[in-house]
């Protein structure tokens, strides 16, 4: 696909550089130095926060899901299903933290999360571990080798709704992957290779091919896939034991969660890079912070993901420290700085910006 690189410049030149120039933005050494020096004392993950947040989110989410399944009241079922989707969405997004925290930082947390959230939602941690870190590599972000990058702002307008709506298929696709394709792959190696390369990573780049697992990830993949397969069989078997209602309600809740996450992904970056390697500052400005005073971002981008650009500056910073890190850097660097250039008002303004870019690209291509 040929992609034109045209967006309108706005007030902050650094934040709205044309995509052709964005990759060549020089690093802002003052910002990088401040990010390192001003946050050293808040860089440690606090186990009490992680465990409490994850357990409450998962526990309340499953309770709300049970209520949505068991109640005969349609309004109550809808309300409980919505609450379940939001709570389980928050619990699920701890997978992002698992891909960054040191393996010894939170003893037992990875295993507990997989047993309580990852396996039940058929999204175990191996689907992100060893994948998401490629998105943070200095020479791979925004390139064809980045599993989590698509130049959406430079694509056709219809690509945006398709990108979001395809997430509706994620829950049944995961049941198919674990319940059918995993056991088939154990018998037929070519199927196993295809499944691993193409549908074993939470990636959005259709050209990404996952390499075979190595080291300590290899045994984790085995037990997580085995448990995922057993759970998928239980879900399929529940239809015969309890009828269609429980699994259909659960799939509806998880589909809503998947769409919400896809919307968050849509506005996590500006998606204006055309494949060229970028500096750290350019990567920061192509990423998005949605800081306070708005509060709704904490719902659609929980567990620190409302500070996604800041996260790209400090990938190992625990999620609970990102608000304080943002306050310190904003106060130190000031309004109008490079740091300020990645701050945006909210989801709707970001979607509108990306949509306008796709329409400009489409119009320019039709003229040519």
From TrEMBL:
Region (Disordered): 1-20
Organism this protein belongs to: Pontixanthobacter luteolus
Domain of life: Bacteria
Keywords: Membrane, Transmembrane, Transmembrane helix
A GO molecular function held by the record: oxidoreductase activity, acting on paired donors, with oxidation of a pair of donors resulting in the reduction of molecular oxygen to two molecules of water
InterPro entries tied to this protein: FA_desaturase_dom (IPR005804), Fatty_acid_desaturase (IPR012171)
Keyword Transmembrane among UniProt keywords: yes
GO biological process: lipid biosynthetic process
Transmembrane segments: 49-70, 76-95, 162-188, 230-254
Pfam families found in the cross-reference section: FA_desaturase (PF00487)
Entry GO terms, CC: membrane
Entry protein name: Fatty acid desaturase
